Queue: 2 jobs
Job 1
Amino acid sequence: MIIDCHGHYTTAPKSLEAFRQKQIDGLKDTKLSPAKNSLQISDDQIREGIEGAQLRIQRERGTDLTIFSPRAGGMAHHIGNAKTSALWTDICNELIHRVCTLYPQNFIGVCQLPQSPGVRPDNCIAELERCVNEYGFIGCNLNPDPSGGYWTDPPLTDKWWYPLYEKMVELDVPAMVHVSSSCNPAFHFTGAHYINGDTTAFMQFITSNLFKDFPTLRFVIPHGGGAVPYHWGRYRGLAQDMGKPTLQEHLLGNVYFDTCVYHQAGIDLLTRVIPADNILFASEIVGAVKGIDPETGYYYDDTRRYLDAVTTLSAADKEKIFNGNVRKVYPRLAKRG
Ligand SMILES: [Zn+2]
């Protein structure tokens, strides 16, 4: 069985975006604010979006199950206030639940959180509990920068975040560290802000003793860990200079990397540098990078192909990356049966 730990609902009906636009318009004129029940999406509309995209790609590439979350760029926690974020998050998570209910063999949910810049993450606890306990979700996406490119909130290692971590530990769910869209024109969102977010989170973890405080807390750093594997020597050296333990001891019991790296040399490097126990298969279908690589003739995001072609991993290690490690990081997956 092949589990893809990173897929987003990028093919929701257009009425979802229209609702969001009304919500944004309502920030200027509250008379325009839409009621939640003004958004009506049928099961057939959901099927239409999923079957021609995520489900078709799963079948074509021979993957079985996708850990599925709302569109990451759409989270946009910087828009409006905590109330804006709460309603939007409620709607987006409910749609993920509906996809997972329609296709229980193919998708299992991970929630977005109702974060808002400057608002304590304690406000995310109720939504996380609701999604795990009522919807059967198995994790969350945590935005390390709810301001959308200005980094105005404390680092992930600050006690600011601890109440949310306590709940994650209690529920035994991991977080994927995942930024959203960038409203800072200096940072392209998927090309710069995403990779910066991944790299920044890892460096924050190095400087802290977060995992002494939370020995069972788990994070997945997506997009192959940003710049981390490529600069592993720098990070090892920085940790050494700071008098920290080796990265293996310091972080690798708690931090995992996915395989959303869209070329063979990148996957070769990732799998040589990062221990197989810390790598989780993922593709981030559909839409992070949409095209076909003219050098190979295959889609950039067809990450299974790169892993299959890695020659330096044993079959047992590949099995861990495709399946076993995901089950270890997301233990609630086992409850799915
Ligand atoms: Zn993503």
Job 2
Amino acid sequence: MVFKVDGRIKRAIERDKRFMITTTKEDFPLVVQRASGDYIYDISGNRFIDFSTFISVYNFGDNSKKEVRDAIRKQMELLMHNAFTDYYSEGPVNFAENLLKMFPKGFGKVFFSNSGTEANEAALKFSRIFTKRKYVLAFYGGFHGRTYGSLSMTASKAVQREGTGPFGPVVHAPYAYCYRCPFKQEYPSCGMACLDYIKKYPLAKEIPPNETAAIFVEPVQGEGGYVVPPKEFIKGLREIADDNGMLLVDDEVQAGYMRTGRFLALDNFGVKADIYTFAKSIGAGLPMGVTVTRSALGDLKHGAHANTFGGNATVAAGADALLGYVRENMHRIESGIKERSGIMMKRLDAMKERYEIVGDVRGIGMMIGIEIVKDKKSKTPGIEERDRIIKEAFEGGLVLLPAGECSIRIIPQLEIDKKVLEKGLDILEEAIRKVSSNA
Ligand SMILES: Cc1ncc(COP(=O)(O)O)c(C=O)c1O
């Protein structure tokens, strides 16, 4: 593919810059118009393979499945907005009931909102109400959203917080980012120094454990750089929470909904949380946030939390249709993810062997990241190189998104055609080769 910025693309970008106050738009000139399955099409008819799933939203194909769109259309004809927090309706409750079938025994209760940040705001508020405690422990590199409660827990990039403090009572600790261990140790000989740190510093010197409501954690850090912690890390957090009467809140907004090969990413670690949050893929392309609590935590007072659009009839119809598809096809989906994950890991590991600038390849299921460095020995972050790879790949017909300081996320839809997957990996490799040869 030979991509050229034509007048229409140029005008669309200029108008965006004139009217929009702030965004996180990337350097590459993608002006989307439509999408179907594995591909994104721009307004000038250029076709791109999608390894971004529109920021981790279309786990089951760009523009969702036909049965999902049909369910949405049908509900729209009947009633679009149902005022679910004030009036009763069946659709969102059907979805809640079906969703809970994906959870371990003992879950529980569901709260609907419209985004990941709201799902986490609800989890934060609920944790404080349930425990009657105020502090929260969260992690560097963690991303939980951009509204005040969630932003207080987010510590991914300083620009996201710049000029907006003070924040809520949240203390951050280092995540188990083994490729760049903050303690300059190596796993497993480190003996999980990051867990010791939590016990010896924040919980011993800063926030009294008996006043700490919850530990908020992503099972795999997304925005922070596609960082996969060792199992012991998540298990250790569960133990710390249990030993101190804190709740473990698992943010599955990016890692959840089959992305790692399991419906709940946390299941890969053999750990259960007390509260789970979802958004992105769960709405099948429409805005939805979900907070799920353990039944034993009990209920909240009438009116303790609510919103206008949570449990929206149209969104719930789409979400339920997609969940129905996932449940009916679970075995095929699981084995498909395993197979595609294998293809991706093999190709990416080979790229790591071949190119000095590919420092690390890591992931679970089809949540895979590669970290770009100046060279393997120094591990100096290859920020420019990463950005150039993404641009080169775009011009070659592949959409990728960055993560963290110098990583690239590789998150095609979970049922991507295997030939398209290989083609996308070819484009990625060609981009890495080009950037490597004039690095
Ligand atoms: C793990 C995680 N939590 C929360 C959020 C916030 O979600 P939203 O942008 O829908 O508010 C994101 C968004 O990227 C995320 O990746």
